[in-house]
Amino acid sequence: MKEEQRSLLLQSSSLFSPPQGVKLSYGTAGFRADASILRSTVHRVGMLAALRSLKTQSVVGLMITASHNKVTDNGVKIVDPSGGMLSQEWEPFADQLANAQTPEALLSLITEFVEKERIPFDGLQSAEILLGRDTRPSGESLLEAAKQGISSIFGAIALDLGILTTPQLHWMVRARNKGKPATEPAYFEQISSSFRCLVDLIPNEIKSNKKDNTVVVDGADGVGGEKLEVLKNMLTGLVIEVRNTGKGGGLLNDGVGADYVQKEKVVPRGFGSNDVGIRCASLDGDADRLVYFTVPTNSSSKIDLVDGDKILSLFAVFIKEQLSILTKDGNENPNNNSQARLGVVQTAYANGASTDYLKNLGLEVIFTPTGVKHLHEKAAQFDIGIYFEANGHGTILFSESWLSWLEARNNELSLASAGSEQQKAALRLLSVGKLINQAVGDALSCLLLVEAILQHKGWSIQKWNELYQDLPSRQLKVKVVDRTAVTTTNAETIAVSPPGIQEAIDAETAKHLKGRCFIRPSGTEDVIRVYAEASTQEAADSLADSVAKIVDRFLGFGSSKQ
Ligand code: 16G
Ligand code: MG
């Protein structure tokens, strides 16, 4: 490393002191903490992003957001050149960087890493980082810290894209590396025009009796609401009313948003008895999660939740139906050459009823540990892979090779049988591939796909919710002395340590009809999470409660269950 580069790194990092007595971890999805302690972390992640760009010789992204956390928190994560999450191989280095105590320690870590990874670091190569942030007030000063970190690496430049949803930044990084326009207008244009195509392809008999074209969306008082206000004006055939846009003085994620709605199962702020029966949806603070809900009666604040598992099921039904139209020849026989390998990916939090439903549809269902990076990786192994977490984060991935096949097939069909059912199915699948964000789960594009499918099928939200009935479930969290004492295997369904705990959980689970229960250390909070499912709500509650007590007995302080 050149001397000028060494002194620039030392000088820049001496302006940012790391927090004392706090160990930061890149965690499930980037660093997250109270915004007041994050300036040095974000500055260092700026350096890390520049190194990642040098290493891959591609554009990378840096997003400043703490998603559904409270407004005083913030966070930072890197978007890899593919548009996905930072390669997991770099996470330990991210942790070391964030926790280095002095500029000298930081410099020696960088020097070592640059050598080990053979990163071109001679000032001759250029690096480019796209920056985005959500609407948090702390975002602006943290963004400045990121810029300073980036500019402490010779050849690295930052391009500030302003306030964006997390999925918009992922989309733009992916587009940029494919040589496509990577601007917000290009993003809006792609998703609104593919939505229009899907609506135009709705069968006439259904189109003629359409009635239910309004959806009311809770924007969590964050960036998603703001962006949806723009997007909604570009759509035809759908009316979107946005509440909690962040403009009315409401506090981000405070009694609003997808995380609140999914966990508490009550109406968010701004919704109530006037909304009984209406189709409602909720985004989270950075618009990468989406859930739907209805208010069933005006006498209570309870909602009927339509969660990520139901969104997954709706998508799976539609894709499967279109594939089967596409692959039938004139004699209604399946044409095996064009069979796509369609699979779905869930986590252990997926309601057991959803998994049974998907398996009954004849689909291959795979389980991974919690966190988008795990699900995304598995879904990418299919021709068409659909993944969702129950909390509303998910998308559909189409492989490049299958999409090329589909385009060629569509061209053939448009010559041989333009306007046929088969060709319409090909066009619908192509439109889904453009509408749905291929980089990461995206609440805005998923919202439009849900709306297009409901219109296509002529379904109300109630009809959609009846695809299957959720098994009663309960989630609890338990504070323990050291949550890392719990390790798990088999997609987090079995606790390997501490010894004996799994046997105790099994014995408790066996007492309940349709009982299922697992524990795992949270990746975002200092707690152990307990999930229980059973045939009745009382049974699910009692199973969760007993297992929380087991966790407390093995690992806790005595009686600290929340
Ligand atoms: C993060 C993850 C989400 C996961 C959640 C689990 C991303 C983009 N987000 O929000 O997928 O469900 O963490 O939190 O990966 P937990 O570990 O605290 O249960
Ligand atoms: Mg989020």
List the helices and strands and how they pair.
Elements: H1 3-13, E1 31-34, H2 39-56, E2 59-64, E3 73-79, H3 91-99, H4 103-116, E4 127-133, H5 139-151, E5 156-163, H6 166-177, H7 184-200, H8 204-207, E6 214-218, H9 223-231, E7 239-243, H10 258-264, E8 280-283, E9 290-294, E10 304-306, H11 308-326, E11 342-346, H12 352-360, E12 364-367, H13 372-379, E13 384-388, E14 394-398, H14 400-416, H15 421-435, H16 443-457, H17 461-465, E15 473-478, E16 487-489, E17 494-497, H18 501-509, E18 516-521, E19 528-533, H19 537-555
Parallel strand pairs: 2-4, 4-5, 6-7, 6-8, 11-12, 11-13
Antiparallel strand pairs: 1-3, 2-3, 8-9, 9-10, 13-14, 15-19, 16-17, 18-19
Helix pairs in contact: 1-4, 2-3, 2-5, 7-15, 7-16, 11-15, 14-15, 18-19
The structure holds 2-acetamido-2-deoxy-6-O-phosphono-alpha-D-glucopyranose and magnesium ion.
Domain Alpha-D-phosphohexomutase alpha/beta/alpha: 56-90, 124-177
Keywords: Isomerase, Magnesium, Metal-binding
Organism: Hibiscus sabdariffa
